[in-house]
Amino acid sequence: MNGSVVSNGGPEHRPSTPASTETSPRRPAPGVRLVVQVPCLNEEETIGLVLSSIPRQIDGVAEILVLIIDDGSTDRTVEVAKSHGVTHFVRHARNRGLGRSFHDGVQRALELGADIVVNTDGDNQYPQERIGDLVQPILRGEAEIVIADRQVHLVEHFSRTKKALQKFGSGVVNRAAGTKLPDAASGFRAYSRDSLMLLNTITRFSYCMETIIQAGNKKLKIVSIPIVTNPKTRESRLFGSMREHMMKSAGAIIRSYIMYKPYAIFSFFAAIFGLVGAFFFARYGILLLAGDRGGHLQSILVGAVSLIVAFLSVIIGITADLIRTNRMLIEDTLEHTKKMRFGRINEYVPLDESYGVGLDGGAVPLVTQRARAPR
Q1: 166: how many CB neighbours lie within 10 A of its CB?
Q2: Which of 38, 95, 281, 357 has a C-alpha 20 to 30 A away from that of 365?
Q3: Where are the alpha helices (DSSP H) in 218-296?
Q4: How far is CA 44 from CA 60, 74, 243, in A?
């Protein structure tokens, strides 16, 4: 399986458990279990195409499972998926957003004993045939996260404005994460088990940019492979307009940036307002020395307010940095909790090694459960 690979790392790292302090990705153990999770919202017309294009065999992978995350569908999405042999579902009674769907899907995939989780989309925009290429860097121990580069400049149904915004958004995310990914908004991705233990999504709108910023700042190895997307099947359901998309994406980026670099952000604001305040007070002093004894109330007022804002920015920055330290300790605890919860003792395994039983062409294997002894 071929494909050029762009490698990226992150700027910040903190001591944690052995899994998070490794300088290079760990190669998955033999008998790798891959879970392909598909978030869906009323995808009855395309989910069959998605499922039939998921590979049933991949070099280096012993088992492939499909997990459907039904985010409040009101059509026959689930019934169509079942007719294609899918047996694993996460179902939301109402629409909860892509970020929550990703979070719940990852939790279930880890419960199923996933060594690698691939995320695709129910609208068939991504070429599921490339899943094998997507997971190879993880199988070779070269990466912990692999992101498919849609080569946005080649996507015909993207307007010039959307292409420019995608490029700008990727640049902002890369700056926040310390990465050099060409397509930070792509949802076609592969995650190693260890990387998922370290990532915690909180954004309801979309997890794409948030997880990159987290992964980059935790120094997880991320690589990118180029793909060509499938033709457009429908309008995006993530947002109603480009303005809404920009606002939600900006909010997610700013929130993630503040989580990891709060002091840098508030120090910047403190410096700006401090300089403004100093300028107006200096102006007042110069005029006073020059013999101009007018009131100059505006200079005093603007200078005083600016210096107060600068001082408050410093205080907020220090507080936010202390909160960041506390969050890092909580994340360490959460990581340990995840490893205890999703450990190898109660691992999902098939009763036998049969594949494709009772499935139509292109479907994934039916498997059942039993306990696996610790290894």
Answers
A1: 21
A2: 95
A3: 242-260, 262-289
A4: 32, 10, 28
Q: pLDDT band for position 134 (50/70/90)?
A: very high
Retrieve residue 359's tokens: 């499935």
- Residue 342 vs residue 93, higher pLDDT: 93
Cα–Cα distances in angstroms (integers) from residue 246 to residues 147, 250, 303, in the given order: 21, 6, 34
> What is d(CA 259, CA 262) in angstroms, rounded to the nearest whole number?
6
What percentage of the chain's residues is helix, strand, coil (to nearest 5)?
45, 10, 40
pLDDT value of position 50: 96
Secondary structure of residue 136 in the 3-state scheme: helix
pLDDT of residue 106: 94
* DSSP character string of 41-101: SS-TTTHHHHHHTS-S-BTTBSEEEEEEEEES--SSHHHHHHHTT--EEEEESS---HHHH
Q: Which residues in 234-258 are b (16+ Cβ under 10 Å) and which e? A: eeeebbeeeeebeebbeebbeebbb
Calculate mean pLDDT across residues 253-274: 84
Rounded Cα distance between 332 and 335, Å, is 5
Phi, psi of 148 (to 5 degrees): -80, 125
Instruction: At 40, give phi and psi (nearest 5°).
Output: -135, 140
Check: CB of residue 195 under 8 Å from CB of residue 144: yes
Q: What is the pTM of this model?
A: 0.72
Other beta carbons within 10 angstroms of residue 328's beta carbon come to: 15
In this structure, are residues 212 and 119 in contact, taking their beta carbons and an 8 Å threshold? no
CA distance to 285, 286, 294, per residue, from 301 (Å): 14, 16, 14
Q: Are strands 116-119 and 63-71 parallel, antiparallel or unpaired?
A: unpaired
Q: Which two tokens stand for residue 343?
A: 């450990």
Rounded to an integer, what distance in angstroms lies between the CA atom of residue 142 and that of residue 360?
A: 35
CA distance 25 to 14: 16
Q: Phi first, then psi: what are they for 61, rounded to 5°?
A: -115, 125
CA–CA distance, 340 with 255 (Å, rounded to integer): 29
Tokens 């970020």 label which residue? 99
Give mean pLDDT, residues 320-349. 74
Report the 10 Å Cβ neighbour count for 107: 15
Domain ranges of the chain: 6-255, 262-328
CATH number, domain 6-255: 3.90.550.10
